[in-house]
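Re: PPS structure - here you go.
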Amino acid sequence: MLRLQPICPIDGRFGLRGQDEIPLRALQFKRGLLHEFRKGNASKEQIRLHSLVQQIPKAIIIGVRKGGTRALLEMLNLHPAVVKASQEIHFFDNDENYAKGIEWYRKKMPFSYPHQITIEKSPAYFITEEVPERIYKMNSSIKLLIIVREPTTRAISDYTQVLEGKERKNKTYYKFEKLSIDPNTCEVNTKYKAVRTSIYTKHLERWLKYFPIEQFHIVDGDRLITEPLPELQLVEKFLNLPPRISQYNLYFNATRGFYCLRFNIVFNKCLAGSKGRIHPEVDSSVITKLRKFFHPFNQKFYQITGRTFNWP
Ligand SMILES: Nc1ncnc2c1ncn2[C@@H]1O[C@H](COP(=O)(O)OS(=O)(=O)O)[C@@H](OP(=O)(O)O)[C@H]1O
């Protein structure tokens, strides 16, 4: 049987101020223990002794698709008191999964210490009609994170993902211009999902029937790309977490063109290549039309959330 050296929580949390060693060792220990458990080398008793439990999320990144949800989750996971569900669970937006019940959902969560908080992200939650009520029924005081990007850029990013999927299957696909503009009226095609998803205020209004605005935190996805730390510090505050993520944990990788994550001197990682795709060039008149279309919805969004963005 493997001999495991526990790393003890300090003041109910891991880590020493400004040091990344302890949180990392704690994480490594936790992962190592689970790995050994799966291999049959660690007993259930050891798991129990170290008080590891699978917890229902206390916060969920509900969207927006292509807003930077993965980057946000991975970056928050740098915090020693946060554990992430690695996969998108799609519990609340998928009827089949939802029918499996809350215990099924909990069992999908990673093991964590009781003082830690679990976070999951499923970007489809934001736009799926049934989700707010379902989440409310589970926990009416849950914290909800929404990461948004300039709506036209987000729509193009959304299109780019679908286009890449088609190309992978050697299929042709319409141009973004054709999908986003109705050829009969020459107006913005609001039936096109990539456009609809970017009307943030419409979706948020549905959520507000269940949750007060104070339970939401809006993350600026464009700023998370260029200057992630201040955005993460705002989230730490919203989640009532002590500030632990530092500039040390984030370094700019010029080859990737994005910030990557540093856990310690030996362990760092960038997001997968499917994040940060090159967008196709889009006709400037279409961009202008879309920006004009989104403008009043954006104004409403700023008004409701109390967070203003410099979107054109
Ligand atoms: N650090 C870092 N590294 C890589 N990518 C980053 C990062 N921060 C934000 N982003 C942006 O995240 C965009 C993908 O958003 P999502 O993760 O929400 O996509 S998804 O809905 O889960 O498919 C993705 O959008 P595209 O650039 O359009 O591909 C990225 O721009």
